[in-house]
Amino acid sequence: xxxxxMPHRIKVYFTDPALVMTRDRxxxxxxxxxxxxxIVRRYVSSGAPVGSRAITEDFNEPVSxxxxxxxxxxxxxxxxxxxxxxxxxxxxxxxxYRLYVDRVARSSGLHPDTxxxxxxxxxxxxxxxxxxxxxxxxxxxxxxxxxxxxxxxxRSEKLLEHVKFVALPNHRVLAVIVSRPDVIExxxxxxxEEMPQAELDRAAEYLNxxxxxxxxxxxxxxxxxxxxxxxxxxxxxxxxxxxxFQAGAIGQQxxxxxxxxxxxxxxxQPEFVDxxxxxxxxxxxxxxxxxVQILTACLDSSSRSGVTVLIGQENPAAEMRHCTLILAPYxxxxxxxxxLGVVGPTRMEYDRAIRTVEYVAHLTSRLLxxx
Length: 371
Prior knowledge:
Elements lengths: L29 H17 L5 H7 L6 H13 L3 E2 L8 E2 L1 H10 L8 H11 L6 H16 L2 E5 L7 E10 L3 E9 L2 E8 L6 H15 L4 H14 L6 H13 L9 E4 L13 H12 L1 H14 L6 E4 L11 E10 L2 E11 L4 H20 L2
Antiparallel strand pairs: 1-2, 3-7, 3-10, 4-5, 5-6, 8-9, 9-10
């Protein structure tokens, strides 16, 4: 396996998009939005409230501090900014982040150096699909400097390529299942009575001929459906196949595997100095079944294309309502098979995170679909 090491802190480059108005009429004027975008970027970078003087310095054209203060006051009244202390500057609200994401963050571009690093890291030789998924979550965490997540396809949803049954001693059968993308699994099935190898071969031939390209869950459902319809004909072969699926629990409905990398990074964020907030969030990461449900729900509610960004209160889980979740689906030959993304505080470098998630999702889909 080729190993690509990463510097202690990789430099990630993104183009700096012009802060322009969308074609649609907005409740914010051009200069108001320009001020808001600069406040978002400064606050994301420093974590400290932003004052009018700092924003005045960011403008190329002459503009007075009084003008900026007035605009900031208008933005605060409109719910885009808040003032944590009387003497402090302003910080963005979730409403501000949402506007920034919709207007600016999605228009930034991934620098070729960053894309090249992702290509090298994910194209490294691997022995299994699990190794690829683990690398994906690690790359997402490293580049976004947050928590990287990958929801892998459930075993029951993998597409059947080939199956073989081998008789073993003591009423056992070895089921070798080849599915796509790129998975070979072995199941030892214990039966109540011996099944001759000839019957096992017939069962495998039937499955390979009838169900190649079907998901294992759908195969299981179809087998039991056909068996019920053929009860009166005493269809021995189908009964044998159903018995193998039942005894081996092959194709049963299940949740996908979850890969999490960089959970400790959340502890470095000033937003999580509150012990209870950290405890609740880390408990969500540890309870992977719950996190799988959250990601699955987000994926099901999205258009299954592009990047979904859930900010603060938009998150379905109470434990994650101080966070932002950026999620994108990935596919195997145009079939959505999972989701990947990052979790971090709402004070996040959205430009970086969105483009990283989008690029990694596209590359993961391509790598899975090569063969």
